[in-house]
Amino acid sequence: MNFELIAQSIQYTFSNAKYKDGKKSRIFKNVREQSSADSLAKVGKAIAGLQDDALSEATLIQKQGIQLSEQE
Question: What are the sequence ranges of the domains in the chain?
Answer without folding.
Answer: 3-17+24-66
